Amino acid sequence: MGRHTFSVGGGYRWIYTDIKPGSGGQIRNATRDDQLFSAFIQDDIQLDEQLYLTLGTKLEHNNYTGFEVQPSARLRWLPSDRQTLWAAVSRAVRTPSRAEHDMTLTQYPGKVIGIPGLGNVPLVVTLVGNPAMVSEELIAYEVGYRWQTTSRLTLDAALFLNDYARLRTFELTGPPSLSLFPAPALVQQATADNKDHGRTYGLELAADFRPYDWWRLQGAYSFLHMNIRPDADSTDNSSAQIDEQSPMRQWTLRSSLDIRDDVDLDLWLRYVANIPTLAIDPYLTIDARLGWKINAQFDLALVGRNLLNSPHVEYKKFAGFDLEPKTAAVEREVYLMAEWRF
Question: Topology of domain 4-244, per CATH?
Answer without folding.
Answer: Maltoporin; Chain A (2.40.170)
